[in-house]
Amino acid sequence: MKNITMSLIAIISLSTFSVAGGDISPVEPYVNVPEVSDAMPGKFHVGLGYSYMNMNIDDTNEDFTAHSVLFKGGYNFNEYIGVEGRYTMNVGDITYDNGKESDINADMSNIGLYAKAMYPVTEEFNIYGLLGYGQVKFDDGSEYTESGLQWGIGAEYAVTDHIGVFVDYTNMYNDKGLDGAVVNSDVVVDAISIGATYTF
């Protein structure tokens, strides 16, 4: 009787394991895919601003200043590196100062393409540097153009996810002469700009 009881227990146990084994599904591997945040860099942006452009001719102590509009657009590859194109042109007359100020009918503009190095100080605020190539043009009846290395420094603040503000300084030209004119004079063309950007 004891042997029969032990045999029944063994048969029931084996049947239970067999049934349980039949109900087990294969375990599928789980891969954790990180979500892509809307705040991640790699975005296009456009901007509009005001620039105070200045051309100084050192030896003759002449200054040409212009109230200008700035258009810019670019792309950030990540939070540290981007590219940016800019076009700046004066609006209205240019102020000429050689000891006495007067308004003259002339045009001053700049177009440039820059690599943009950024450093995020906080999530909303970063500082940046610009380094690239551009062309300055001055036209007072005779047209003068100079192309070469340009650089700048600035800061920008994200007001919202899409809207930001910026302020920067850009050195557009710093060399002797201007397209064959004032060949013995140091000529500096630069601008201080402030404006807003929209990020897509």
Category by helix and strand content = mainly beta
**What is the correct CATH architecture?**
Beta Barrel
Average residue-wise pLDDT: 87
Instruction: Name the assembly state.
Output: single chain
Largest sheet report: 8 strands, antiparallel, barrel
CATH fold descriptor: Porin
Count of the domains: 1
Low-confidence stretches: 16-21, 36-41
CATH top-level class = Mainly Beta
The total count of strands amounts to 10
The shape is: elongated
Q: Please, how many helices?
A: 1
User: What distance separates the N and C termini?
Assistant: 84 Å
Strand content: over 45%
Give the neighbour order of strands across the main sheet: 1-2-3-6-7-8-9-10
Helix coverage percent: 10-25%
Protein name: Porin family protein
Pfam family, one: OMP_b-brl
Keywords: Signal
Domain Outer membrane protein beta-barrel: 37-200
Topology, please?
Blueprint: H1 2-22, E1 44-57, E2 62-76, E3 81-90, E4 94-97, E5 101-104, E6 107-120, E7 125-139, E8 143-158, E9 163-178, E10 181-199
Antiparallel strand pairs: 1-2, 1-10, 2-3, 2-4, 3-6, 4-5, 6-7, 7-8, 8-9, 9-10
Question: Your description of this structure?
Answer:
- By secondary structure, this protein is mainly beta.
- It has a single domain, classed as Porin (Beta Barrel), CATH 2.40.160.
- The chain contains one helix and ten strands.
- The protein has one helix at 2-22; strands at residues 44-57, 62-76, 81-90, 94-97, 101-104, 107-120, 125-139, 143-158, 163-178, 181-199.
- Strands 1-2-3-6-7-8-9-10 form an eight-stranded antiparallel beta barrel.
- A hairpin with a 2-residue loop joins β9 (163-178) and β10 (181-199).
- It starts with a helix and ends with a strand.
- Mean pLDDT is 87; it is low at 16-21 and 36-41.
